[in-house]
């Protein structure tokens, strides 16, 4: 992978040129005590962009998969997703890139056709990811064999150094951006061994710290292997009875939850087909004709949530549909923790033997 | 975006036939031709109300029209039942895999239906009968709750007439007023699977009906000696997109809308709780 160095001043110059060309730019900014993706419309905001922070509070999925949108009408009218000239999302973290990969699998490969709304947005968007500068207690990417710095799935990746960035080029779209940078007058230079060393040491330090913090959750069995023997576990009932209040928070904040529901509504003389986010935790999600329900209990639905992410997706795509971002735990009023759940299941199977 | 997979094609309702007090057959004419394979399903839209999956009950060889036999159970189906000829509905599809007809060739084909589950099986049966020389034998076992609940009353007796190639067994769960047609037994559909007189080593069984019927029929067929890979089951799951994306129809790692809706019991037998 090609690596280059760009100074902050030069990069900001490039950003300014993109704004002048009316590209849409989104980047992590600090809003109150949270880090959120915000639209950048003024160069004055450049200084506030956080590249070396941690994952944003909202995940990156809503850029590609809108909470609610009209996807068709009867009679037919020209519904098609808005075409963006160019859109850059910056500061995307490794975990959200993993989640985008899950979406790519589900929306490009799993279905009988590539999902066109997702595809258009994905193709018109440039993703500039960046290494995490620190981690949160809830982060567990390392437990899922990921790293707190992007290794794949980006167009460009930024590793923050003292007064600039190491820029890794990860795709043809990344190459395009490098070319645009050059055209904007920004100077890119070769990465020096000292800069390389700084990047490596930052990455190693944080990875070690994360591994250390997650040591208590380390279990010998892989999560998919555990699921295979956990269908009848009593854990699901415990989560259902004592923790989950069915608020849907986890599923909305989850960067990989990709389910949706279509419904039709009358509007004037049209019947509009609306697509909204949906989630398997909802009682009506799997209900069929006349009220029969294959997952009537909350415990069976919670189990499905875990199994889809950690078993079925692995069987279909050989990867977890979980990024280890820990957002679900942060929002959950019942404090349901994925790491803890697996640790408990592991304990339960050990006791049983 | 070339094609919008959420956009239905408009279709005109031509004819509505009452089958039973809560089941009607609808003949619709899509405004653009839609071709399908028997066993594939469509998403049918009632504009402004909603969309639901149904398998055409007509043969794919009829190109310009499609028939659906639909039981009134809730929101969408209730509205459908109120529609009059001339109404406009929407159709998306076809979705899923059709019945693997080539696997049935040269075999004795047993079709077991319960209630409105006969709808997709009627399409299959009509298709098989169009080329009946390809199959060694075709046998239909159909069970309804009561004589009133038998669908395709006219046709069923018609099918009985093509006796040489089709063996029909009918049964009703109960018949208090003694109204059942000639030759129809009383008892659960599983009773029709007793002494089938089929060469089970060279036979396939295709089952469609309510979950409880599917469960007991499968157990019965296994008991008779059918191998799990020769039992074909139509799995009804909640469906939204039909495209294999929205997640609603998941059954273990499968997406019923694209991997099914027909599965062999071999594919399903190790999945816990498949009958609920
Ligand atoms: C592949 C397939 C083929 C089918 N073929 C036939 C057929 O030929 N004839 C027939 O009578 N029935 C058939 N069904 C069942 C039919 O789809 C349901 O009866 C119908 O969806 C019920 O809709 P409703 O709004 O009237 O019911 P309701 O009970 O009012 O539905 C309530 C809610 O549950 C949801 N729901 C219920 N059932 C389903 C479902 N199956 N898929 C998605 N959402 C659902 C809907 O979101 C709806 O809003 C088939 C089902 C499948 C999966
Ligand atoms: S956030 Fe917690 S309480 Fe809310 S639905 Fe998810 S698991 Fe249940
Ligand atoms: S109905 Fe949407 S995935 Fe099957």
From TrEMBL, chain A:
It comes from the Bacteria. Keywords: Iron, Iron-sulfur, Metal-binding. The keyword Metal-binding applies. Residues 236-265, 313-341 form the 4Fe-4S ferredoxin-type domain. InterPro entries: 4Fe4S_Fe-S-bd, 4Fe4S_Fe_S_CS, Helical_ferredxn. It holds the Pfam family Fer4_22. The keyword Iron applies. One of its GO terms (molecular function) is iron-sulfur cluster binding. This is 4Fe-4S ferredoxin-type domain-containing protein. It comes from Candidatus Desantisbacteria bacterium CG1_02_38_46. The lineage of its organism: Bacteria, Candidatus Desantisiibacteriota.
From TrEMBL, chain B:
Keywords: 2Fe-2S, Electron transport, FAD, Flavoprotein, Iron, Iron-sulfur, Metal-binding, Transport. PROSITE patterns: FAD_FR (PS51384). Binds 1 [2Fe-2S] cluster per subunit. InterPro entries: Cbr1-like_FAD-bd_dom (IPR008333), Cyt_c3_hydrogenase_gsu (IPR012165), Dihydroorotate_DH_ele_sf (IPR037117), Dihydroorotate_DH_Fe-S-bd (IPR019480), FAD-bd_FR_type (IPR017927), FNR_nucleotide-bd (IPR039261), OxRdtase_FAD/NAD-bd (IPR001433), PyrK_electron_transfer (IPR050353). [2Fe-2S] cluster binds at residues 241, 246, 249, 257. The keyword Cell wall biogenesis/degradation does not apply. Coiled coil: none annotated. GO terms for biological process: pyrimidine nucleotide biosynthetic process. GO terms for molecular function: 2 iron, 2 sulfur cluster binding; flavin adenine dinucleotide binding; metal ion binding; oxidoreductase activity. Pfam families: DHODB_Fe-S_bind, FAD_binding_6, NAD_binding_1. Its cofactor is [2Fe-2S] cluster. The keyword Disulfide bond does not apply. PANTHER family: ANAEROBIC SULFITE REDUCTASE SUBUNIT B, DIHYDROOROTATE DEHYDROGENASE B (NAD(+)), ELECTRON TRANSFER SUBUNIT. This is Oxidoreductase. It comes from Candidatus Desantisbacteria bacterium CG1_02_38_46.
């Amino acid at each position: 992978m090609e690596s280059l160095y760009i100074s902050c001043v030069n990069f900001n110059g490039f950003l300014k040129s993109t704004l002048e060309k009316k590209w849409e730019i989104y980047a992590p900014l600090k809003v109150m005590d949270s880090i959120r993706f915000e639209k950048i419309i003024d160069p004055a905001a450049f200084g506030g962009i956080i590249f070396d922070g941690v994952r944003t509070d909202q995940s990156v999925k809503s850029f590609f998969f809108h909470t609610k949108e009209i996807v068709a009408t009867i009679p037919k009218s020209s519904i098609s997703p808005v075409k963006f000239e160019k859109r850059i999302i910056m500061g995307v973290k490794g975990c959200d890139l993993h989640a985008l990969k899950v979406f790519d699998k589900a929306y490009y490969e799993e279905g009988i056709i590539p999902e066109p709304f997702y595809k258009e947005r994905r193709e018109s968007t440039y993703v500039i990811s960046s290494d995490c500068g620190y981690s949160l207690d809830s982060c567990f990417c390392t437990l899922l064999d990921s790293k707190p710095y992007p290794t794949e799935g980006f167009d460009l990746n930024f590793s923050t150094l003292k007064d600039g960035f190491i820029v890794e080029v990860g795709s043809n779209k990344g190459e395009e951006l490098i070319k645009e940078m050059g055209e904007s007058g920004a100077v890119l230079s070769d990465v020096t061994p000292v800069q390389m060393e700084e990047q490596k040491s930052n990455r190693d330090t944080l990875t070690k710290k994360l591994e250390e913090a997650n040591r208590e959750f380390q279990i010998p069995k892989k999560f998919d292997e555990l699921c295979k023997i956990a269908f009848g576990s009593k854990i699901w009932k415990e989560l259902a009875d004592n923790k989950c209040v069915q608020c849907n928070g986890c599923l909305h904040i989850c960067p990989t939850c990709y389910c949706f529901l279509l419904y039709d509504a009358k509007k004037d003389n049209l019947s509009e087909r609306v697509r909204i986010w949906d989630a398997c935790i909802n009682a009506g999600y799997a209900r069929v004709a006349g009220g029969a329900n294959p997952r009537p209990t909350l415990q069976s639905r919670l189990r499905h949530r875990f199994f889809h992410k950690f078993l079925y997706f692995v069987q279909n795509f050989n990867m977890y549909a979980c990024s280890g971002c820990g957002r679900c735990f942060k929002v959950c009023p019942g404090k349901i923790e994925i790491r803890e759940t697996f640790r408990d299941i592991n304990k339960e199977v050990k006791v049983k033997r | 975006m070339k094609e919008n997979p959420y956009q239905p094609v408009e279709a005109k309702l031509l004819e509505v036939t009452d089958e039973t007090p809560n089941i009607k057959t609808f003949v619709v004419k899509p405004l653009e031709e839609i071709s399908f394979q028997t066993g594939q399903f469509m998403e049918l839209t009632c504009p402004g109300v909603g969309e639901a999956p149904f398998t055409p009950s007509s043969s794919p060889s009829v190109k310009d029209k499609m028939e659906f036999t639909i039981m009134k159970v809730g929101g969408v189906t209730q509205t459908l039942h109120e529609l009059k000829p001339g109404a406009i509905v929407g159709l998306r599809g076809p979705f899923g895999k059709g019945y693997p007809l080539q696997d049935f060739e040269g075999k004795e084909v047993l079709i077991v239906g319960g209630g409105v589950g006969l709808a997709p099986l009627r399409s299959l049966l009509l298709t098989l009968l169009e080329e009946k020389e390809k199959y060694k034998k075709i046998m239909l076992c159909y069970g309804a709750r009561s004589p009133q609940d038998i669908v395709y009353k006219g046709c069923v007796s018609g099918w009985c007439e093509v006796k040489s190639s089709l063996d029909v067994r009918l049964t009703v769960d109960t018949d208090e007023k003694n109204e059942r047609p000639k030759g129809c037994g009383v008892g659960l559909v599983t009773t029709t699977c007793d002494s089938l007189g089929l060469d089970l080593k060279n036979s396939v069984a295709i089952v469609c009906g309510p979950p409880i019927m599917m469960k007991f029929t499968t157990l019965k067929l296994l008991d008779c000696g059918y191998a799990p890979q020769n039992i074909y089951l139509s799995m009804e799951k909640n469906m939204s997109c039909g495209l294999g994306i929205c997640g609603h129809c998941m059954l273990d790692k499968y997406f019923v809308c694209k991997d099914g809706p027909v599965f062999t019991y071999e594919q399903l037998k190790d999945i816990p709780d498949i009958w609920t």
